[in-house]
TrEMBL record:
Residues 15-210 form the Dienelactone hydrolase domain. InterPro entries: AB_hydrolase_fold (IPR029058), Dienelactn_hydro (IPR002925), Dienelactone_hydrolase-like (IPR051049). SUPFAM superfamilies: alpha/beta-Hydrolases. This is Dienelactone hydrolase family protein. GO terms for molecular function: hydrolase activity. The lineage of its organism: Bacteria, Pseudomonadati, Pseudomonadota, Alphaproteobacteria, Acetobacterales. Keywords: Hydrolase. It holds the Pfam family DLH.
Amino acid sequence: MASISIQAGDGTGHFDAYVVEPTGRPAGAVVLIQEIFGVNASLRETAAQVAELGFFAVAPDLFWRQERNVDLTDKSQAEWDKAFALMNGFDHDKGIADLKATLAAARALPGGNGRAGTMGYCLGGLLAVRMALESDADVNVSYYGVGLDRFAGALAGVSKPLLLHIADQDEFFPPEGRAKVIAAAKDHPAIRAYVYPNANHAFARVGGVHWHARSAWIANGRSAEALAAALD
């Protein structure tokens, strides 16, 4: 486990990225995109799991312009309130620029093989879709992304593998929006959209209040296969 410093995509400063290294070399890299709770204990545990799969896990601190090293849980109303305030103050375009910078840094890690993808959750799930549309990532994985229907019309332009993990009880992603995204992904050669029955938003958040073991295990298996196919 380590932390690296990356120059911001807009050149205004530097931000930290949490890194967990795999035991084998050479290895591809997965840029883990945070939820609204920051690079917290749950995301760090996910990073450890990604490293166990044989990849570098790189989790950038995307809220650094507002507050550095945010580390919140979903266990108290005060933390939820702070997380939503940070989300509302987040500049998505600057975040994408920072993710592109992180992706470039991940490709260049010593012991890496030059391949890198993204995997994001909640807010990060939305940003992973944008990375599929706007970056050269080799693969992108979105878990319960919010507001994905805004990009449904653009999904035809996706050229690299994109996985969409969608909860059928997602309180933050209404059924109409989900249906629009699923329809846009249907028959697309590079996109796979999976819907998880009886699962709520954040069903794969390690230690989270909405953890749904069956959905999480199935989704994580599908993600592992996609990452291995694109990054090994």
